[in-house]
Amino acid sequence: MNAMTKEATIAATPSQKPALLEVRQLIKHYPGRGVWPKPQPIKAVDDISFAIGYGETLGLVGESGCGKSTAAKTILRLIEPTSGAIVLEGTDVAKLSTSQFRPYRRDLQIVFQDPYSSLNPRMRARDIVAEPLQNFGRSGDCDDDKMAALFARVGLDKEAMRKFPSEFSGGQRQRLGIARALALNPKLIVCDEPVSALDVSIQAQVINLLEDLQHELGVSYLFVAHDLAVVRHISQRVAVMYLGRIVEIGLVGELYANPRHPYTQALLAAVPKVGVGLARAKTLLKGDIPSPANPPSGCTFRTRCPLARSECAGSSPQLTAQGTQHWAACHFIR
Amino acid sequence: MTTPLLEVDDLHLAFASREGVTRALEGVSWQLHAGEMLGIVGESGCGKSVTAMAVLRLLPAPPTTHISGAIRFRGENLLQASEARLQQIRGNEISMIFQDPMTSTNPVLTIGEQIAEVLMLHQQLGRRAAWARAVELLDLVNIPDPQRRVHEYPHQFSGGMRQRAMIAIALACKPDVLIADEPTTALDVTIQAQIMELLDRLRRETGTAIVLITHDLGVVAESCDRVVVMYAGAKVEEATTAELFARPSHPYTRGLLDAMPRLDTPLTEPRSRLPEIPGMVPSLRSAAVGCRFSPRCALADNRCRSEVPPLAPIVAANPSHRAACWRSVSEATAV
Q1: Is B17 helix (H, G, I), strand (E, B) or coil?
Q2: Residue A3: pLDDT above 50?
Q3: Which residues on chain A are in Cβ contact (under 8 Å) with B217?
Q4: Which of A128, A154, B204, B262 would be A179's cystine partner, CB 3.0–4.6 Å?
Q5: Shortest CA distance to A244 belongs to which of A86, A29, A73?
Q6: B residues 242-271 lying closer than 8 A (beta carbon) to A
Q7: Residues in a beta bridge with A91
Q8: Dist. CA B18–CA B60, nearest whole Å
């Protein structure tokens, strides 16, 4: 079984090589609570592997509690992984000590979901954006012209530099968060639900900004979101997570047009569609996502799966190839 | 046409604070008919939730709040109703479910106590009868094992189950009107589909009319009979759902629809840019001079900036589709 996982790991890489970032068999288990019965670990991220190419966007989708944010934060080591490799341009940064890892933080930045709580309310916008530069001893790069250029790049004017976060709207705050992430010219920005707190009209502005920056700077994104339409628009490849595992991964066009895993099919069917005369035809998934502290045996999706049979309780399905650059983990793919 | 069940008529609402007067609603009108699901859509701050709060008089009293116009429920103006009369109406004839199922249940009472409370208060049921009915209601909203679940506390329920319990509380007295304020916003998409399916089924079974307040045009498209689009405290467009999505007429409605990434557009490489609505929602502190949307509107001309456009039918043949826009109306009549 291990060999199969290996194979899937190697297979599930982008077409273009070498990859900027390769995540191999990443695991994050949290200790369970209590003393008796013997607590089981909570498997927040349970053996996932993927790769991100230069200038590429990988979308990571799933419902709340599926481990997508944990996976994203583990890559930055904001959460320490339990095991697994995080290979950034050939170096396994998961094995480095904190001080050895520090220089690599310049290449890995993050934009958070909540533009209200992720900016220090007592700091001026300019200081918020300049802080990463100062942290890495590049105070010389914080002069007014360079900061104004950075503000202009995210669509904020010079006057904004003097303001406090409370003086900005949600969309503008998210622009500030993006400017802060860009300050060190990173190679990869992890976007953890960057537009889910924004209104539709503002969301489009921020998505366009992220796309423009990618074209100009060649930065790669790991785009974590629950909105399938947004992920489809911004990503080249998409990974679908359920209960700590990747159940399907592939090129965006292929995955959305031809979803193979029953969970991906159900997710896509559940998205409300705007269109004339579209009948509501849904495979309604029953019940809620099970607790990761006590996941079902075998395939973790089997408790909600319309295709589940008794075999599904036995063994956990591995990612298998479904055509060009498309993998899904299900025993009964038709 | 029959008399509407619930009618909001030229509702104006303003909040006074130290910073000045905020005009939250400026002449909003809509009607809800029996058995209907009416969608009210708009972005944060457009006044959609405050309209719902006004219907049940859940807002602070004057002088901080100034309210004018009329809210008629079966012809009775709720703005002039006594507090005792409102107590009879709330939760009994008109009930409400809120966005956040985490904070709108009482954490120290079991789900059963919270449902039974409504029944004992409004329907004078005895304790035993109320609890039996609570179990039935949990079963009605598809909560598995209701006999056991009725004795559990809200924290033992998942988000989706808590929202279903909220719906059970709201439906306990078989209200004529259910106001659902962003009922699925805090939920995952598969759970959202379950809740919308449930609301739709309950509407068909019980005949309860529903006002669905949401920012999600997709949810509206799939569930509602009619839609009201709000922007900055005013109604900018109103139509049947099919008509609105077939012929969105106000530039704001069109902008909202275009700005949404969709699952059915072709994927190009590089991607085509999403059409943005430039700028931001205006402050409601100043009185409207001209169309509130004109600073963000590509079609705006001098008249848009100086005169407030009235709601008018887009085409004479279909008087139920109306928009408040000088340009879309004049263009449509020109064609």
Answers
A1: strand
A2: no
A3: 200, 274
A4: A154
A5: A29
A6: 242, 245-246, 255-257, 259-264, 267, 270-271
A7: A88
A8: 16
Q: What is the DSSP letter of B55?
A: H
Tell me which amino acid residue B250 is.
H
| Residues whose CB is less than 8 angstroms from the CB of residue B195 and which lie 6 or more positions away in sequence, other chains included | B160, B163, B164, B167, B183, B184, B187
Model confidence at A58, pLDDT cuts 50, 70, 90, reads: very high
Question: Residue A261 and residue A332: Cα distance in Å, rounded?
Answer: 9
B217-246 per-position pLDDT tens digit: 999 998 999 999 999 999 999 999 999 999
Q: Dihedral through CA B324, CA B326, CA B329, CA B333, nearest 10? A: 160
Q: How far apart are CA B226 and CA B270, in angstroms?
A: 37
Residue by residue, DSSP assigns A119-145 as: S-TTS-HHHHHHHHHHHTT-GGGGSHH
Question: Which of A201, A254, A282 should be substituted to probe chain B, the one whose Cβ sees the most B Cβ atoms within 10 Å?
Answer: A201
B190/A15 Cα distance (integer angstroms): 32
Closest to A92 measured CA to CA, from A77, A113, A79, A70: A77
Q: Give the least confident one: B99-103, B144-148, B296-300.
A: B99-103
**Å between A57 CA and nearest CA of chain B:** 12
CA distance B279 to B252: 12
CATH of domain A2-107+186-328: 3.40.50.300
Q: Which residues pair with residue B38 across a beta bridge?
A: B211, B226
Q: Domain ranges in chain A?
A: 2-107+186-328, 121-178
**Number of continuous H segments (helices) and E segments (strands) in chain A:** 11, 12
3-state SS class at B319: coil
Residues 275-304 of chain A with CB under 8 A from chain B are: 275-278, 280, 282, 284-285, 287-289
A261, A278 contact by CB (below 8 A): no
Task: Quote the tokens at residue A201.
Answer: 């009209």
> Is the CB of B256 less than 8 angstroms away from the CB of A228?
no
**Residue carrying structure tokens 């909570």:** A42
A246: tokens are 């990747």
What pTM did the predictor assign?
0.87
The answer to whether A229 contacts B262, with C-beta atoms less than 8 Å apart, is yes
| A193 secondary structure, DSSP code | S
Buried b (16+ CB within 10 A) or exposed e, A70-79: bbbbbbbbeb
Amino acid in the structure at residue A202:
I
